[in-house]
Amino acid sequence: MERIVILSGAGLSAESGLDTFRDAGKLWAQYRIEDVATPEAFARDPALVHRFYNMRRAQAASARPNPAHRALARLQADWPGEVTLVTQNVDGLLEAAGASPIHMHGALSRAICAACSYRWDAPAEMSPDDPCPACTAPATRPDIVWFGEMPHEMERILSAIHSCDLFAAIGTSGQVYPAAGFVEEARRSGAETAELNLTNSDMSRAFDAHITGPASNIVPAWVEALLQPKR
User: Fold this and answer.
1) What is the residue-level pLDDT of the chain in tens, covering all 231 positions?
2) Could you confirm whether 105 is annotated as catalytic?
3) Parallel, antiparallel, or unpaired: how do β-strands 192-197 and 82-87 relate?
4) CA distance 103 to 12
5) How far apart are CA 17 and CA 37, in angstroms?
6) Which of 22, 69, 96, 201 has its CA 20 to 30 Å from the CA of residue 219?
7) H or E stretch covering 170
8) Structural domains of the chain ordered from first start
């Protein structure tokens, strides 16, 4: 087993204090997805969308990596083969732990111009009047993949999945496509598959192995087991 692909979702960062879609009473519960996480929402009320992502950006900036993030960084550094980390999360906690992930849904730390597609590091707060550094158009938005948009780097991600020996999903709901279909792509390519999650997901039936529990407990133990025979 040389090539590993790991998909991570909101469950990886939940123990660092970041909200998920299902956290009652938390940030996402205060807004409808249709009002803050679609291109149509941004066109209709960009000020509201910016306020929402300014809050998310501030929340993420105060969070710290947990043992699961650090374990994945260790695996990527110490594994003798290739470890591709693909994350649906828009926080920077994997990077803060020392890992190098592919952000398929974008990143809170980045901004993009809706007029010319120029990208740059986002300030702590953004507004609809912010000019693009490249074209000066007041069309800046968070560099986030919203519902109805194509995730980033899909060709690179699918290439890694089709050539991997092990595909693992950590902290994902199995409800958001195309990520929810990655396990089937891996299975068709002959890879072993493993799910690490707090509870079963909508795609649990598609995995060969299942490990349940808090990510900060099960991910370090799983990584330790993978690395142990290689020492």
Assistant:
1) 699 999 999 999 999 998 765 554 555 667 888 999 999 999 999 999 999 999 999 999 999 999 999 999 999 999 999 999 999 999 999 999 999 999 999 999 999 999 999 999 999 999 999 999 999 999 999 999 999 999 999 999 999 999 999 999 999 988 888 998 999 999 999 999 999 999 888 888 999 999 999 999 999 999 999 999 654
2) yes
3) unpaired
4) 14
5) 21
6) 22
7) strand 166-170
8) 1-18+65-105+151-231 (3.40.50.1220)
